[in-house]
Amino acid sequence: MRRLFLLSTLYLFASGCSHLSQPDEDLRRQYLAITEPGISIKTAVDLIKQRVQPEGELLVRANTPCLARESKEKQKGSASIKANMGWYYWGATRTTTYGEWCFNENNQLIDVIVYKSFDGHRDSLETR
What we know:
28% strand
């Protein structure tokens, strides 16, 4: 029993060390270094798939700003790409990390937003 507890604790600690557990701003800077401001949606899709490698499919949303379900003041851009970047455990809490690439009316990248959701408050690509 003691051995099982120690192995479980070690697993939870190791899975909490995922690169996704970095602060949102650090991940944002990394993603912006790969998908530089000014690139097109098509170029961003290719770079995200090849170099960022999110978990699952990308949701490309024409005429939908980043943070579309938030208040108008928090929304950004006029088109967006949303991706589930993956998840990690911090202790016993499962944390999912999302990335949204924001584009202006000329379909040029203007920013990346990174945010997390936690156990029981997980968002899907369709609901956020």
